[in-house]
């Protein structure tokens, strides 16, 4: 099973984007960790933000204060709200749960 990411695009420095991650009801209602990751060309895939087991949310230092996770139980969807975007945020963003495989991701490009 894959999560379906969407919402990527091209935005200027300082702009905002919201990414969506649609999963099945089974995955959404589980207590397993689910989060957002990103990978730029030539780099390793890094954790951006994660809802850990038990519901605690963790953010990477590079996005803390700028990005926020939210969930909509009526849509089985998790969101990543990204504000004050910087060129170094340019990456393919992936959503993954402990219960899902890696999907194709969604490209975010921040122009300077």
Detail the topology: elements first, then pairings.
Layout lengths: L3 E3 L2 E4 L4 E6 L2 H4 L5 E6 L6 E6 L5 E3 L7 E6 L4 E6 L8 E7 L8 E6 L1
Parallel strand pairs: 2-10
Antiparallel strand pairs: 1-3, 3-8, 4-5, 4-9, 5-6, 7-8, 9-10
Give an overview in words.
By secondary structure, the protein is mainly beta. It contains 1 helix and 10 strands; from the N terminus they run βββαβββββββ. A hairpin with an 8-residue loop joins strand 9 (91-97) and strand 10 (106-111). The longest helix has 4 residues, at 25-28.
Features:
four-stranded antiparallel beta sheet, mainly beta, six-stranded mixed beta sheet, single chain, 112 residues
What general outline do the C-alpha atoms trace? Answer: globular
CA gyration radius, whole angstroms: 13 Å
| Head-to-tail CA distance between termini | 36 Å
- Helical proportion, percent range: under 10%
Q: What share of the residues does DSSP label as strand, in percent?
A: over 45%
Stretches where pLDDT is under 50 for at least 5 consecutive residues are none
Major beta-sheet overview: 6 strands, mixed
So how many helices? 1
**How many strands appear in the DSSP assignment?**
10
Q: What is the overall pLDDT average?
A: 95
Which H/E pattern describes the elements? EEEHEEEEEEE
Strand order of the largest sheet: 2-10-9-4-5-6
Structural class: mainly beta
